[in-house]
Amino acid sequence: MICPCGEGDYATCCQPYHLGTRWPETPVKLMRARYSAFAKDQNDFVFKTWHPRTRPQDPGVLGVEWTGLEILATRGAALDGDGDEGGVEFRAHFRVNGENLVLHERSRFTKRARRWFYLDGQVIGD
Known about the structure:
Elements: H1 15-19, H2 27-39, H3 43-48, E1 65-76, E2 85-96, E3 99-112, E4 115-123
């Protein structure tokens, strides 16, 4: 089965993160795993990877069909995992009530106890 993030086979791409057998080593891998978690209704993974200081009580998004992910830019430790901060700019494509839409965001990630967490994001208007 193709991974929702578009990087390969789900069993070897994002599923190990969702099952808790591995933790994403970089902000980009965490971004892809979070996108896949939204696409597969893995709300527990989304919750666990959201920094406790900024996460909502229920991060789930209902009624959304996620249709594609584009990584546009990275900064800081996003690709290699070295450091304590990283950023990922992305476009997440989705469908709601038959309408195709795009979420364009610059996300910030931070390391806590040697693990990467989503901190927050700035939505960009296209």
